[in-house]
C-alpha cells in the first residue's frame, strides 16, 4: 500500500479571542479550517506568534486576526520577515487597500474613482462638498477605532500636521453593501438595509452594474491571490461610492450564507491557496 501523499502545510493566523461588534470571528475560522483541513495540514496561531512559526509551513493564511493597530510592531515585523524569507502569505502582502492603511482613499479620490471624497490636509478642505457634519478618522484606523463626527466649523482646528487623519463628508446613504471576491472572482454580496445597523446583513442580488463598480477596485488593487471585500454605500441619488477596500483580513459573514454558499466559498478559497503554493 502506497503512503498517503503529504498535504501542504498551512499556518492559519487568527485571534479566536477577539471580540468584534456584531460578529463572531471565531465561528467563521472554525468553519473554514474544518473545510480546509480536508486538503491541507493546518495549524492555528495568534498573530503575535506568526513570525516565529512561519518557516515550518508552505503558506501563511492571515484571516480574522483583528485590527493590526492592536499589535502594529509585531505586524510590521511579520511583514518584513515574510518579505526577507520569501514566505508565501495569503493574502499576499502587495495589497494597496486597508492592508497599507487608508492612503488608498486619497489616491482613489485624486484619480477620480467613485469613492467618498477624502482629504488629509487643511488646504484641501474646499475639495469636499459642504455638509453639516464630516467624518474624521485615523489614516491607520480599523473597526471604527478613533472615528468621530465633526461639524464643518471645527474642521480647520484639526491636527493635520502629522498627516495621520482623514476627513470625509458624512454621507447619509440608503444602505451599505459588500461584495466578496476570491482572487478576482466574485463570490457573493450582502447588504445592510438599515444604515444604523452595519452588521445586520442580508443577501443582496448584485447587478451587472454593481459588479462593474466593484471590479474597478479589484482591478486597481495588486492582489493575485487572496480574499477581498469591497464595501460601498448607496447614495439617495442611486450612486455607489466606495467606503473601504478590505484586503488584509476581511470578515466574511459566512454564517449568513446557505450551506451550499459556505461550501462554495471554502472550495474557492482552497483552490486559490493551492495556486498560491504552486503557482502556474
**Beta-strand level of the residues, as a percent range?**
15-25%
Spatial separation of the terminal alpha carbons: 31 Å
Main-sheet strand order equals 10-9-8-11-12
Radius of gyration: 20 Å
* Fraction of residues in H or I helices: 25-40%
List the helices and strands in order: EHEHEHEHEEEEEEHEEH
Please give a structural write-up:
The chain has 280 residues and is α/β, with parallel strands linked by helices. It contains 6 helices and 12 strands. Strand 1, helix 1 and strand 2 (41-45) form a beta-alpha-beta unit.
Defining traits:
single chain; 280 residues; alpha/beta
Q: What topology emerges from the helices and strands here?
A:
Blueprint: E1 9-13, H1 25-36, E2 41-45, H2 50-53, E3 59-62, H3 72-85, E4 89-90, H4 103-110, E5 133-138, E6 148-151, E7 165-169, E8 175-182, E9 185-192, E10 202-203, H5 208-220, E11 227-234, E12 240-246, H6 259-277
Parallel strand pairs: 1-2, 1-3, 3-4
Antiparallel strand pairs: 5-6, 5-7, 8-9, 8-11, 9-10, 11-12
Amino acid at each position: 500500500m502506497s503512503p498517503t501523499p503529504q498535504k501542504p502545510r498551512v499556518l492559519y493566523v487568527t485571534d479566536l479571542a477577539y471580540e468584534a461588534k456584531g460578529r463572531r470571528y471565531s465561528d467563521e475560522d472554525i468553519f473554514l479550517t474544518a473545510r480546509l483541513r480536508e486538503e491541507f495540514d493546518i495549524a492555528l496561531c495568534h498573530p503575535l506568534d506568526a513570525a516565529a512559526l512561519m518557516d515550518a509551513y508552505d503558506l501563511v493564511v492571515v484571516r480574522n486576526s483583528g485590527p493590526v493597530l492592536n499589535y502594529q510592531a509585531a505586524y510590521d515585523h511579520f511583514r518584513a520577515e515574510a518579505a526577507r524569507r520569501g514566505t508565501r502569505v495569503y493574502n499576499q502582502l502587495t495589497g494597496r487597500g486597508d492592508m497599507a492603511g487608508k492612503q488608498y482613499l486619497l489616491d482613489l479620490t485624486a484619480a477620480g474613482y467613485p469613492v467618498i471624497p477624502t482629504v488629509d490636509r487643511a488646504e484641501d478642505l474646499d475639495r469636499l462638498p459642504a455638509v453639516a457634519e464630516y467624518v474624521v478618522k485615523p489614516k491607520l484606523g480599523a473597526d471604527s477605532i478613533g472615528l468621530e463626527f465633526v461639524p464643518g466649523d471645527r474642521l480647520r482646528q484639526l491636527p493635520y500636521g502629522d498627516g495621520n487623519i482623514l476627513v470625509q463628508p458624512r454621507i447619509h446613504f440608503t444602505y451599505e453593501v459588500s461584495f466578496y471576491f476570491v482572487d478576482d472572482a466574485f463570490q457573493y454580496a450582502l447588504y445592510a438595509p438599515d444604515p444604523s445597523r452595519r452588521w445586520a446583513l442580508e443577501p443582496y442580488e448584485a447587478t451587472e452594474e454593481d459588479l462593474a463598480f466593484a471590479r474597478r477596485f479589484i482591478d486597481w488593487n495588486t492582489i493575485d491571490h487572496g480574499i477581498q471585500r469591497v464595501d460601498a454605500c448607496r447614495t439617495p441619488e442611486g450612486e455607489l461610492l466606495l467606503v473601504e477596500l478590505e484586503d488584509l483580513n476581511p470578515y466574511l459573514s459566512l454564517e449568513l450564507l446557505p450551506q451550499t454558499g459556505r461550501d462554495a466559498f471554502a472550495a474557492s478559497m482552497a483552490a486559490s491557496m493551492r495556486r498560491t503554493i504552486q503557482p502556474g
